[in-house]
Amino acid sequence: MSTAEVAHRIREQFRRHADRVRFRAQPQVDDDPELEGLIERNASSLKSYLRNGPACRFYTSTQDRERTASFIEHRYPEWLERTIAKADLLCEHRVTLFGRDVYLGDDIDWHQDPITGFEWQRRHWTEYDLVNVSLADAKIVHELNRHQHLPRLAKAFFLTGDERYAGEAVVQIESWIEQNPKSYGVNWQSSLEIAIRSISWMWTIFLLLESESLEEEKLRRICRSLFAQLDHVYRYPSVYTSPNTHLIGEAVSLFIAGVLFPEIPRAEGWRVFGERTLIDSAPRQVLNDGVYGELSSYYHCYATDFYLHALVLARANGISFPDWLWDALSRMLEFVMHITRPDGTIPLFGDDDGGRVLALDSENYISYRDGLCSGCVLFGRPDFKHQSESFCEETFWLLGDEVSHTFDSIETERPAALHRAFEDAGYFVQRSGWGANDTHITFDCGGLGFGSGGHSHADALSFTVFSGGHEFLIDPGTSVYNGAPGWRRFFRSTAAHNTVVVDDRGQSEPGASFRWKTRTSGYVRQQFALPDIDYIDGALEFRDGGKSWASILPLSRSGGIMHRRRLVYIRPNYWILLDNLDGRGEHDFDFLYHFAPNAQLTVVSDERHGEIDCRVGIDRAGLQMCMYASEAIRAEAICGQRRPLQGWASRIYGEHHASPVLKASVHGNGPVSMMSFLCPGNEPLRSRRFKSNTARAIAAAIRDEDYDDIAVMAAEDGDLRLIDYVMRGEFFWMRLEQGNIRQLLAVNARFFSCAGQIVFESEQVIPYVHVYFWDNGILIERGEQEGRVYVRDLRDSQFQRN
Predict the structure, then answer these.
(1) At the topology level of CATH, where does 248-413 sit?
(2) What is the CB neighbour count within 10 angstroms for residue 433?
(3) For 265-313, how does the pLDDT look when each residue is reduced to its tens digit (9 = 90+)?
(4) What Å distances lie between residue 295 and 98, 192, 277, 459, 653, CA to CA?
(5) How would residue 381 be classed by pLDDT, with cut points 50, 70 and 90?
(6) What does the alpha-carbon distance between residue 479 and residue 788 come to, in Å, rounded to a whole number?
(7) What is the pTM of this model?
(8) Collapsed DSSP state (helix, strand, coil) of residue 59
(9) In the CATH hierarchy, which fold is given to the domain comprising 419-685?
């Protein structure tokens, strides 16, 4: 720890102790002299003050009820219908938590887990340890107490004028205040949870200002509690304990409150802290490529949404944030655009929280199209509009009705890039197109993120596949945080991802729920994109703190392992996956492929020859995988296994269900290699294996429309002979038309000849050589640093530099 952190933690411990002593020594009072003085200065009417001041500073959509209601009724009547339907259920005390419909009972107990029925003991907030000493998962009771359903009730009143909805919202807040006096109970334990609840309350208050149910005395009581909660966040921010989205969310709530209530003296401190923290946190928490540094796609959406809410309110109130911060927000939305799949969903790298900053309509970030919709308007981005698909209700509430015309005026434009590298994060995205049935693949060459890596998973070199409107190869998700350590360990483990497990051990060893005992990170060795071929080379060395992975293996096992995985996209039809596991000694290598729960698998294997043919179907969509290993291989399909856990997926926080996994196992001495073809679609994949002059190479052919493609991967240096070709290098791909070579890609190579004719030769390894052949000539691109292109005329065998 730095000196500043040590000092901060000591001061915080003193504050905690003092607060606990004070709480036990005297009854709690909810007086707020600054608020009382403000009311006196405004003709003893808090509602009058809110109408004439803060309401004018809040988001513009809440400032004219009749105009907003009329706009939605005429332009988006489905929004109104959906709002009323949800509000009617909420009036019956029926809420949705993590995708489950839950009845809260006639009298809501805000300390009871509404799913399991577990009752949290009521004690001073400092006396809880919800991570290390937890009998249940506090995430569930916290989610309920974020009160994100209350703005939906308030919205229903705002659009219909029906006091039933307003009255229900006010009654629920009053019951919460009664059950949760200041500093007492589990709902005061987390500053982030208080911050999100404060945001929900502020939206609820301003949507209910015209309601008769929000009487003056009730409003005063609500604001006293709201300001006490904001004071708590200001007094106990997660500066060092959770300097991630916790700190960002706390800063946003304080910034919003500071902007809205400047007439309250201490609100200036809230605003300054929030503004400074948001500016300081961005370069610390957001990588240069725009990816949130915890390397969780769900928490990336959280961070993006927090900044979006703060920056929009700041601009509306004439508060300037640096231009570079707006640029960072744009880059964060670009990442969302590229990882968003054709159906609007995102793959779940790392932890899935299951919640949202504000849940006026959508209740989670399984899709974040509304963020792209807002980004389209804010940055004038036609590509964001394409991925957002249509104008979103969340954008309306955040930016107002006028932006719908701005959105309509922007021409929709498909993003230009079909591949995108986020090298700082180690994420790569490839797609066959931007249509509904196109294929979308993500490849993770990154690590465990900044800090403790608490929300990242041991998933380096894992990949996902979405095609034909369906998930095929998935990231299984999160399941739970607390209360079920076995499930927590499994879902963040290497075994729960589409990568390789060695000797039943993962890449990193988990510690507590949000920590790791050992950390191993992937990295990018090489990557390039050609007009019709993408190549990504990632690697993982099983090391921790400079120690060889062998140090955590049984002594009977010798040597560490390097896993190298390369993903080669042959546009537009198929991918080649190349795995090398290099090291000494005898090991068990398990290649794992996790499929969507509704996938139907057909697996045919020739175990002795190291070949597996896996065909996967979902409705009318399909995916075929042909795998060729350097050793004998055993194929096994697993679904819903409990000892050990395997074959499970979690589509939203708090649940898990059986999901099929293909486990391809090799036992032997390193190095071990595997070449796999991945071909989306239902057309049977025609593939066959070749024999070469060395057992340390894998060569196979695949039929691609009118072409026969041959791929060769070598595990050692030396001449490799195959048909009429002689080659020296790591990887070669050849495209043949009626037996004639038309295209060649050679990676980290020194030599290639065809029928005795040398195509290229070099004493030094060339990163890549890309060659086009025609009847009388060859076009050669050598991928050295300076980049060279040659045209060779076969009639006189001369090279000409282009």
Answers:
(1) Glycosyltransferase (1.50.10)
(2) 14
(3) 999 999 999 999 999 999 999 999 999 999 999 999 999 999 999 999 9
(4) 22, 20, 21, 11, 17
(5) very high
(6) 51
(7) 0.94
(8) coil
(9) Beta-galactosidase; Chain A, domain 5 (2.70.98)
